[in-house]
Amino acid sequence: MDVVVDANVVIAALISPTGHTADLFFSPLLGVFAPELLLEEVEEHKKELLKKTGLTERDFNFLVAFLAQRINFFPVTEFLSFLPKAKQFSPDPDDIAYLALALKLCCPLWSNDKQLKSQAVVKVISTSELVQFMS
């Protein structure tokens, strides 16, 4: 199954690297895709995440790089034509690129953002739903 992953899911995997979210990342049954800007979003939350996790900056950077190896990243130029439709339906401007990429790839968006479920253009699947689906 292919999914576009939202930054909140990657952040959850960083906070709990031994939990279900991190396990799902490395499932051979899952293809994981994201806009390149995902790494920028993670970097924006770095200070907060370092405090929450207690990781050193070096360990944090290693963990981000480790997760990033599993994600197939797309530059915005690859899904530019889907941005207008995504913008029309996105409940949050920060989610437009994720919706646009999901539209391009015709796959669900893996996100724990309840607000995203309010739109009807892309199927949004939470971590717990994905765990059930993959079992």
Key words describing this protein structure:
about 140 residues; alpha/beta; Rossmann fold
Number of domains: 1
Task: Output the helix-strand order.
Answer: EHHEHHHEHHEEH
Strand order of the largest sheet: 3-2-1-4-5
Give the termini distance in whole angstroms.
Answer: 13 Å
Q: What about the largest sheet?
A: 5 strands, parallel
> Any idea of the CATH topology?
Rossmann fold
Oligomer: single chain
Low-pLDDT regions? none
Q: What is the CATH-assigned architecture?
A: 3-Layer(aba) Sandwich
Q: Tell me roughly what share of residues is in helical segments.
A: 40-55%
- Give me the Rg, rounded: 14 Å
Would you tell me the overall average pLDDT? 94
Q: CATH homologous superfamily name?
A: 5'-nuclease
Strand percentage: 5-15%
- The number of helical elements comes to 8
CATH class: Alpha Beta
Number of strands: 5
Written account of the structure:
The protein is an alpha/beta fold and 135 residues long. It has one domain (2-134): 5'-nuclease (Rossmann fold, 3-Layer(aba) Sandwich). It contains eight helices and five strands. Strands 3-2-1-4-5 form a five-stranded parallel sheet. Helix 6 (83-89) packs across helix 7 (96-105). The longest helix is centred in the middle third of the chain and has 12 residues, at 57-68.
